[in-house]
Write a structure and sequence with these properties.
single chain; 131 residues; alpha+beta; 6-stranded antiparallel beta sheet; 6 strands; 4-hydroxybenzoyl-CoA_TE; fatty acyl-CoA hydrolase activity; hydrolase
Length: 131
C-alpha cells in the first residue's frame, strides 16, 4: 500500500489457525477491526464518546481478497488508509507478512454513521479521520 495513514505489527496466535495450520478466514476480520480501532485512538476518536453524542459508527460492508495465508506465529504488518466517499468513510487495508512483506489480504471496509438512528454524513468523524 502506498502511503498508509497507519500501520501496526501483530503476531498470529495458535488458536487462530484451523486444521490446515493456516489462519481461519474469519480471524482476518479481527485483525482488520483491531487495526481500525487502534487508528481511531491515534486520532482521538472514542466510540463511547461518539455514542454519548448520539453518533454510532458502524461497518456497512467489507470486501476481502485473500492472497497468501498466514500461519501460526507469523508476524505481520496491518496497514490502512482512509478516504471519505459521501456518507461513507472507506478504510482500505492490507496485511503483509513479515519479514518478506508478502501480501496476505487486501480489504475495503465501508463505515457509515447513524446520528440518533438516522444515516448521516458525520462530518465530525470524517474530519478527524483525514487530518
Amino acid at each position: 500500500m502506498k502511503n498508509p495513514a497507519f500501520e501496526m505489527e501483530m503476531k498470529v496466535r495458535d488458536y487462530e489457525c484451523d486444521l490446515q495450520g493456516i489462519v481461519n478466514n474469519a480471524n482476518y476480520q479481527h485483525y482488520l477491526e483491531h487495526t481500525r480501532h487502534e487508528f481511531l485512538l491515534t486520532k482521538g476518536i472514542s466510540f463511547a464518546e461518539l455514542h454519548e453524542k448520539g453518533i454510532d459508527a458502524v461497518i456497512a460492508r467489507v470486501e476481502i481478497s485473500y492472497k497468501t495465508p498466514l500461519k501460526s506465529r507469523d508476524k505481520f504488518i496491518s496497514q490502512l488508509r482512509v478516504e471519505i466517499d459521501g456518507f461513507k468513510q472507506v478504510f482500505h487495508q492490507e496485511i503483509l507478512r513479515l519479514p518478506d512483506m508478502k501480501l496476505c489480504i487486501r480489504a475495503k471496509a465501508d463505515n457509515v454513521c447513524l446520528v440518533n438512528g438516522v444515516l448521516s454524513r458525520c462530518d465530525e468523524l470524517a474530519e478527524k479521520l483525514i487530518n
